[in-house]
Design brief:
This protein has helices spanning about 5-15, 60-75, 100-110, 165-175, 180-190, 195-205, 215-225, 240-255, 255-265; strands spanning about 25, 30-35, 40-50, 80-90, 120-125, 130-140, 155-160, 210, 230-235, 270-275, 285-290, 295-300. The protein is an alpha+beta fold. It folds into 2 domains: about 5-140, PurM-like, N-terminal domain (60s Ribosomal Protein L30, Chain: A), CATH 3.30.1330.10; about 155-300, PurM-like C-terminal domain (Phosphoribosyl-aminoimidazole Synthetase, Chain A, domain 2). Helix 2 packs parallel to helix 3 (about 100-110), helix 4 (about 165-175) packs across helix 5 and helix 8 (about 240-255) packs across helix 9. It is globular. The structure holds adenosine-5'-triphosphate (ATP), thiamin phosphate and magnesium ion (3 copies). One magnesium ion binds near residues 30, 75 and 211. It comes from Cellulomonas rhizosphaerae. Belongs to the thiamine-monophosphate kinase family.
Length: about 325
């Protein structure tokens, strides 16, 4: 596994997976779309693993519940769908206080109840570390899903949500410096995604969309490769306010705030492409252009030479 990256591993998995009779959008996007006799729905799953995504000494059950919900709801929103329901599978070690699990459920409730998203079931098992695996469903409300593969030469690239805050908060926790910027730590522990802007982007004709889980540059590259175009992003110098908000943390840790903005994961903003001249939903900000060229991503016209963004294996 150490010799593969996530995309290479998926390329080995996908050929073996049956398409089934009802698949409208197969694996490869933020969610699949499945036909139902009375319509169709988006479905997606993401897992959080103790000591890979969170540490129990930093994150309470409530935090992990919020985060697991957001991570999955954002994948639904990135299809242009409205989330409707979750199911939650838990693996819990024997030393875990029952209160932690109750707090986890409260975290799901706090995130989902205001959205009228039901948490409608799940599964329980024991195991060596905490694992929270969530499946989320969404309603496309009669619209076409917004795929990763629809960006076209001449489109604008726009982003909604925060940039780099989760990465900065995670770095502060790792270095024992949470005191430097508690707001950034909160952005890591309990990220917030502009979920309503997924359907809003779809309604104004977004051509492609992804939620940013592995970093702007890496996830922009996924749209570029899926669409057969290149996304040319603005660089860190265009993100003055974002960089300023991360400056104290970057200074304290000797890290680069611009790198967090461009490559930090787990913010769960929405990155979308729109036809040129389209009025964007409020909350989206233009961060680049789509051009013809070697499919993928460039920053200010050049290959990105900063860190690559998150990959579990690569
Ligand atoms: N084990 C697997 N079997 C089948 N399909 C998979 C598997 N793992 C991932 N996929 C599919 O591969 C695509 C990419 O998955 P990935 O997890 O990178 O996307 P994501 O959930 O949007 O990102 P992230 O997990 O970083 O938040 C998705 O369509 C997903 O359903
Ligand atoms: C303890 C700890 N170590 C490392 C990280 C960083 N991290 C883990 S997964 C991920 C990207 C998205 O994951 P996925 O693709 O699984 O959704 C990132 C940035 C963390 N959050 N906690
Ligand atoms: Mg996603
Ligand atoms: Mg995933
Ligand atoms: Mg990922």
């Amino acid at each position: 596994m150490r010799d593969l990256d996530e995309d290479a591993l998926l390329a080995r998995i996908f050929p073996h997976l049956p398409r089934g009779a009802s698949t409208l959008v197969p694996p490869g996007d933020d969610a699949a779309v499945v036909a139902a006799p009375d319509g169709r729905f988006a479905v997606t799953t993401d897992v959080l693993v103790e000591d890979r995504h969170f540490r129990r000494r930093w994150s309470g059950g409530f935090d992990v519940g919020v985060r697991a919900a957001v991570q999955n709801l954002a994948d639904v929103a990135a299809m242009g769908a409205r989330p409707t329901s979750l199911v939650v599978s838990l693996v819990v070690p024997g030393d875990l206080p029952a209160q932690w699990v109750e707090d986890l459920a409260r975290g799901f409730g706090a995130m989902c109840a205001p959205l009228e998203v039901g948490v409608v079931g799940g599964d329980l098992s024991g195991g060596p570390v905490v694992v929270v695996a969530v499946t989320a469903h969404g309603d496309l409300e009669g619209r076409e899903p917004v795929l990763r593969g629809g960006a076209r030469d001449g489109d604008v690239v726009a982003h909604a949500g925060v940039r780099g805050r989760s990465a900065a908060g995670w770095a502060l926790l790792e270095e024992g410096r949470a005191d430097v910027a508690p707001d950034l730590v909160a952005g890591y522990l309990r990220p917030s995604s502009p979920l309503a802007l997924g359907p809003a982007a779809a309604r104004v004709g977004a051509t492609a969309m992804i939620d940013v889980s592995d970093g702007l540059v890496r996830d922009a590259g996924r749209i570029g490769r899926a669409s057969g175009v290149v996304l040319d992003l603005v660089g860190p110098s265009a993100y003055g306010a974002d960089v300023a908000a991360l400056a104290a943390a970057a200074t304290a840790l000797g890290r680069d705030a611009g790198d967090w903005v461009m490559t930090g994961g787990e913010d769960h903003g929405l990155l979308a492409t729109f036809p040129q001249g389209r009025a964007l939903p409020e909350g989206f900000r233009v961060v680049g252009r789509v051009r013809a060229g070697e499919p993928g991503v460039v920053v200010e016209g050049r290959a990105w030479t900063g860190s690559a963004g998150w990959d579990h294996f690569g």
